[in-house]
Every structure is written in structure tokens, then in C-alpha cells.
Amino acid sequence: MLSDLPLFPKQASSMAWQVDALYLFLVALSAVMSLLIAGLLLTFAVRYRAKSRADRSNAPEGNNTLEMIWTLIPLGIVMFIFTWGAGLYFHMARPPEDTMDVLVVGKRWMWKLQHLSGRREINELHVPVGRAVKLTMTSEDVIHSFFVPAFRVKMDVLPGRYSTVWFKPTRPGTYHLFCAEYCGTKHSQMIGSVVVMQPDDFQAWLGGDVSDLTPAQAGERLFNSLGCITCHNPGSGARGPALTGLFGRQVRLAGGSAATADEIYLRQSIEDPRAMQVEGFEPLMPTYRGMISEEGMLQIIEYIKTLGPGPSAGAAPSAAQPARGGGS
Amino acid sequence: MSHYLNHDYGIRSWLLTKDHKRIALLYLISATVMFMIGGIFALLVRLELLTPAGDLMQSETYNKMFTMHGIAMVFFFLIPAVPAVLGNFLVPMMIGARDLAFPRVNLLSWYIYTIGALFTLWAMISGGVDTGWTFYTPYSTAWSNTNVLVTGVGIFITGFSSILTGLNFIVTIHRMRAPGMTWFRLPLFIWAHYAASIIMILGTPVVAITILLLALERGLHLGIFDPALGGDPVLFQHLFWFYSHPAVYIMILPSMGVISELVACFSRKRVFGYSFIAFSSLTIALVGFLVWGHHMFVSSQSVYAGLVFSVLSFVVAVPSAVKVFNWTATLYKGTITFETPMIYAFGFIGLFTIGGLTGLFLASIGLDVHVHDTYFIVAHFHYIMVGGVIMGYLGGLHFWWPKITGRMYSEFWGRISAAIIFIGFNLTFFPQFILGYLGMPRRYHAYPEEFQVLNVMSTAGASILGVGYLIPLVYLFWSMRYGKPASDNPWGARGLEWTTPSPPPVENFPVTPVVTEEAYAYGTHGKESPVG
């Protein structure tokens, strides 16, 4: 029976023990504080029960020094806990430089994932041990939340936004993947698993299915078939801004403001171009809202990311792709 | 002798009463009904979770059960219970007033509450609602095909009863104190209700607006929250928690006020650090408005916003801790007896301490990421909201029962049921902390098998808790007819409400009292009346 009673979750990421350290510290602190208060309550309750003859002279009605002590010491303790938790959070919010990226789309009630090499998965995510993995996530419908207890990470997956989460698996195995934000009827079936593999096994797995285009290649196809290429061509006199080397750069907008060309900027520019009018261009672009699926949008963004700083956009994708694909 | 219960008879005399004491009893009946409805939903939820497979009911049904459990309990029991029942009865009596400042508005607030409750019950009976009590968008506006609008209307309406009650309390406390009842002679129950009233009148309009916006989007497809319509789903969370976090303090502050009264009375001692407890209530009410974002640490809000909400959440923990320390210190050199209300007070301090300490886990932003939306948070808020309110409410109800009804309840059964509730509560909710850290998400109809043992423990606890709640229902009812008649002041308590007959006359005090001493003047001159 006792073996059926788990008390502590598996640790399978670089974050896990760090979160657990704070947790165990707080468990210890809570135990000490609870015992202190329970001990005082019980001691006083017994000692000063109505029938006892304990000395009750000079019973205090208050004591400012004591009030200061039990205000300031707890304040100090909680500020210490705050900095500890805040440090962890910063660490979680800042993925390392060299991550293996995976695109994630949540929909009621499944997880659709795609590796940058093109391999797709549903409700399963295969990752190599020891490699930092970054997920870029969005939702087709309602809010979901990507939660892997063994990694101690969780991030909401929102429609119309891109959120990211990263983790570095440390132990091979199969771990629960849960949707943690209530998303309707089959919320509790929006589950799956994360399979952490040895790097060699992972490479073999990744190469096991090469039928899919990479997201960037698929994005390029969409880019051409939707006609984006007619205006966003790298030639001079183009009607739209060139996209070469755009990703991550500062863009000057009409009206004088500036924006960083990140995922959400690109998405908004595609869905609502006039809200993000680039300086020096006419507001000619129509909206593509509703014309591109969430996966298609992620793929177009991946394609634009590959349009490196080279002089010609046409040459860039083929040159950039092996570099990214090989990195995974 | 003529008192508020027998000066007039008939259903009409109750439904048209302007007496705050009778309105308190009307609220007592309504809130008890809503509590029982919410309790039945809870029991069904726990029964379903006895086994890992979702085998007792369909997932649609299960989702409606936890949603309606939350809605009935939060909006129709936890928020109104202590202020609308005990506060209504006691605020005028404790400050030496004849009634609340606006007796008709007080009756109106009960009708508004009841109409809102009926709307919500209708929504539940005619198909139910499945959004969770939090109504997160865009699920609630674009995807759920259940009775979101009718439920929303019910909550919208009920909010006004809360606003009116808060307004009534604030005006009454400012304007209707008896001669000599200075601010720092007020019982801490009054300070706590004053602080909670501020939140009621400032926070409740925000939830009303939020529900209105939700209705506009759902009914008329105005794009406010749904990105498909150009809205922002996270905006809803900001608006919702701007009210619903302070709402926790609407629940817990009045209950803390009750505990201050109980601890003082059954220690026969002035509350230690009176002014620190009084000001901690106001601090909690004000800082409590600035912590809503801690419900959204994984919502993709900015990292820096998260840090600000985290640090403020830690700050708001301190005044709560100060209260616990002061109650504990009150016992020192007291003359302590252990009647039922005092058992509840001890229970409150125990549950609130565990609830408060586990709040530190959740305020720790990097740790919250893991436990967010798991059973850890479910356990935490049940300890704070339910543990806090139930212990304060039942403790207060027993303490003032002789005053309210003129009868004594059975002390034996009182103590037994208080102990059963305490044990059942801990057995229900403590395993959920462990479940949450293991990673079991909340609102799951089915779950992996390794979580079963802890869920079985929780369900077993819930059945004990259910029995614990039923016992007082029986003996309190029984006592109204067969209980020993109560004296004016059966506990030897201080406070103006104990200086008038039990039950009190319609006008509360035959002569307007004049206050000449501090609150809780225990042991200074025996059990004389503090009335000058």
C-alpha cells in the first residue's frame, strides 16, 4: 500500500532540483512555523486553562517591541523567499542561446508538435537528453497550458499569441504531459507524454520519418502560394518591405514608433497589416486573417527566420536550413 | 417578553421586515440552502475522483459539477456568509445602534441576493454551466455551449447585494456608533467588517463590469476577449482577478473578526495588540487589491509584472501572520475554557496557518510555475477560504446562537462536530497538497493511476466532513425549540450585544447605551455590564 503512495515527483530536468530545493526549504519552514504556533497554542491552552492556578499577574495587553519583531522578521523571511523564487523564474524565462526548437499547437483536445527537421508528433514529444529544448506554442481555440511535472515547467498556450517554454532533460524516460488550463469537455484527455532519449537514439528517431517538409520549407511554399512573394521580393522598388534579415531586428513603423520583429510582430503584420505599417511603405497589404492555419503561420514565421542577412532572399533559405536542421 | 422573533408573526412579517436581525436570519436560511447545494456538487466531484477512470459520470457532467460547486460556494456562500448573516445581526448591536443606517436597503440586498441565486439555480437546473467558476475566455465566450449567460446574470445581480451590504456597513459604522463608542473602542469584528466592506464596494463593481463584457462578447460577438474577434484573452483574467482575489479577503476578513471575538472571550482577556489587529485588517484590504496578477504567473504576462505581483503577495502575507501571532499571544496568561466556539477558533488558527504558509509556496514565482493549476492550489485555497470561513462562521454562529435564538445548543454535540469537521477537513485537503506537487492538474475528470491512493484519502475525508456539517444542522434546529433558554450573557462575554436580553428586543437596546471603556474589558471589573 505504501509503495502506491507517491510523495515526490520524478526529477527529469535541469530545473527540477532547483524548484525542489525551494519547495523543500518552504516545507521545512512551514513545519517549523506550524509546530511553533501549534506548540504555543497547546502550551498556553494547558497552562492557562481555567482550572489551573498559573500566575496571571501583569498579563500584557500588547507589546510594541514584540509587534515589531513579528512583523519585521517574517517580512525579512518572505523577502528572502521572494528573491529565491524570482531568481528561479528569471532562469525559466530566459532560454539559453543554443536550443533545439519545437513548434507546438494546442487545440481541443490534442497537442500537435513539429520539429524543425519536419517530423511531426501528436500528444508525444521526443527529445534528447542533455539538450536544451525550446517550445514556441500557440493555440487554435481556447487557452491551454503545457505542463510536464517531471520537468517542473508549465506555460499557458494562448490563441493569438506565442508563448515559449524551455527545459533541459536530464534523465531518459517517459514523462506525463498534461494540459493544465481547463479547456472544456475533454480537458483531462488532453494529455500525452514526453519521451527523453539518448542523443543517438533521438537522431535515429528523428531520421526515421523524412516524408515531411521542414517547417521552413512548408513556410516557403505558403509564402509563394499566398502570393507574399510578389510584394515582398528582395528587388528594388518592391511594394512591401524586404524580409531578408528581418527577424529579431528593430523595425521603424509609420508614425515614428518602433517594434521588434519577433513572432508576434510577424503574426500581427500578416493578420492586421495596417496596425503595423512599416515606415516608407504604402498600406497596400490586405489582411490574411483566417486564411492561414496556426501551423501554417508558425511555418511562415520559421521561413522568415531563415531569411538570413544575406543579400538575396532567394538563396538564403536553402543555405540556412541545413544549419538549423543540423543543429537539432 | 417581547423580542424581535415574537413581536410579529407570519410569513409577511418576515418577508417585509426591516429589522437587521430578521434579515440576518433570512440570509442564514438562503446561505445554508446554497451551501448544501454546493456541498452536494462537491460530494459528487469527490465520488467521481475515487477511481482514476472517469466512470461515474460523463466528462461534461463532471465539468458542470465542479463549476457549479465553485459558483454556489464562492458567490453564494463564502462571500456573503459571515458579513450577511453574522455581520447583519451584530454590526448594529456591537456599536449600540438600533439598526443599520439603511434598513430598507438591507432588505433589498437580501432580495437581490435571492433573485441572483434563483437565476443561478435556474441556470443549473436547465442544463448547467461548465466553464469553471473562473469563466476564462475565450472558452466561456466562444466555445462553451452551456448556460454561461444566465449564470453570469445571476452572479451580476448578486454582486449588487454585496455592494449594498458593504455600503450599509460603512455608513452605519461611521454614523451610528453609540455615545462613547470611539473608533478604538470598536470590537475587532467591526474593524474586520469595515475593511471587508471597503473591498465590497470597490471590488464588486469590477466583477459586474467583467461579466457584462463577457455577456457582450458571448451574446453580441463584440471582440473584447476573444482573439478571433480581435480581443485579448488575458485581459479577462486581469479583470476577473482584480475582483476575485480581493474577494478572498471579503471572505476571510469578517471571519478573522469573529476569531478575535472568540479568542478574547474564551481567554477572558483583552485581545493582544488590538490596534495591530485592527490595522492589519485595513492593510490586508488595501494591499489585497494589488496582488491579482499572482493568479497569472504562467499566463505569459511580462516577467517584471510577475515579479511585482510576487513581492506584493509576500507583503500581504505579513499582516495575516501578525494576526495569528496576536491571537496566540492573547492566550498567554488568559483564563481559557474550551466551549464549542473556542474549538472552532483553535481550528481556524490551525487551518489558516497551514493555508497561509502554503500561500508562500504559491507567491514564490518560480515555484508557482510547477504547482499552478494543480491540486496544490486547490488545497491551498480550500484551507484559506473554506477552512477560514467555515471555522469562523460556525464558531461565530455557535457563539452568538444564544443571542440570536435565545436558546443554548448542545455543548456535547457542538464539540464533537467541531472536532469531526477539523479532522475531516484535513483528511480531505491535506493529501491534495501532495497530489498537486506530484503534478495532478485540477479540473481533471480522469487521472493517472498513481494518484489514486491520495484521491481515495481525500474522498474519505470529504465524507467525514459531510457528516461533520450535518450534525450542527440537526442539533441547532433542535435547540431552537428544545434548547435550554439562554441568559443575556451565557459566556460572560464583554460587548454591547451581551448587555441586552436574549433574544434582543426589536429596538436592540431599551435605552441607548453609553460606552465608557475599551473593548474586551475582561477581568477589569467582573462581569458587570459595560453600559454606563
Question: Could you explain the architecture of this structure?
Answer:
The complex is a heterodimer of chains A (328) and B (532). Helix content of chain A is 37%, strand content 19%. Chain A has helices at 16-47, 64-93, 199-207, 215-225, 228-231, 263-271, 294-306, 316-327; strands spanning 100-107, 110-115, 120-122, 124-128, 133-139, 144-148, 153-157, 163-167, 173-179, 192-197, 250-252, 258-260. Chain A has a 5-stranded mixed beta sheet, covered by helices on one side. A 5-stranded mixed beta sheet of chain A has the order 4-10-9-6-7. A two-stranded antiparallel ribbon of chain A has the order 11-12. Chain A is elongated and about 95 Å long. Chain B has a single domain (18-499), classed as Cytochrome c oxidase-like, subunit I domain (Cytochrome C Oxidase, Chain A, Up-down Bundle), CATH 1.20.210.10. In chain B, helix 2 runs antiparallel to helix 3 and helix 15 packs antiparallel against helix 16 (452-482). Chain B is globular. Chain B starts with 10 loop residues before the first helix and ends in a 50-residue tail after the last helix. Classes of the chains: A alpha+beta (328), B mainly alpha (532). The interface between A and B is large, with 86 and 94 residues.
